[in-house]
Amino acid sequence: MNKAILMGRLTKDPELRSTNGGVSVCSFTVAVDRRFKNAQGEREADFIPVVCWRQTAEFVARYFQKGQRIALVGSIQVRHWDDEQGNRRYMTEVIADEVYFADSKQESSNYSNQSNNYQNAYSSGSSAKESGSDFSDGFFEAPDDDTALPFDL
Length: 153
Hints:
With about 150 residues, this protein is mainly β.
C-alpha cells in the first residue's frame, strides 16, 4: 500500500505548467512540522515536494499561495534520470490525488485570492450557507503542548 497524508504550509506559490499534450501539472513544496520538538525546544519541519495533475493542479494553482495551510492525500513516487555528467539522480515526491483547505476561515480570509472561495467555484447545488448550516473546515486548533488533549475526558 502506498498512501501519503500530509498537512503543512506552502513554502512558495504553486507553479502551474502544461505538458506538450496540454495536461496541467502543478508543483509545490509543503513544510510539514514534525510531531516533537528538538533538544532546543523548537519544532523542525520536513520540506516535501508535491506534484498534482489536471483539475487538481488547476485548483491548487488558483486557490492556494505561499504560507497557506494545505492538506492532501496521495502516494509517494520516486523518479530517476541521468544528469549532464551521466550521474543517476533520484527525486522522491508526493503525487497528490486529493487536496483540501486546512486554514481556519479567519486565516483563509487573509489571503487575497481567496475572495472567490472553493464553495462558490466548485459546489453544485446548494452551498452550506444556502442550506442554513454553519460551514466548518473540520479542523481544530491543536495546542502547542503535545500532551494536552483538545477535549475533556
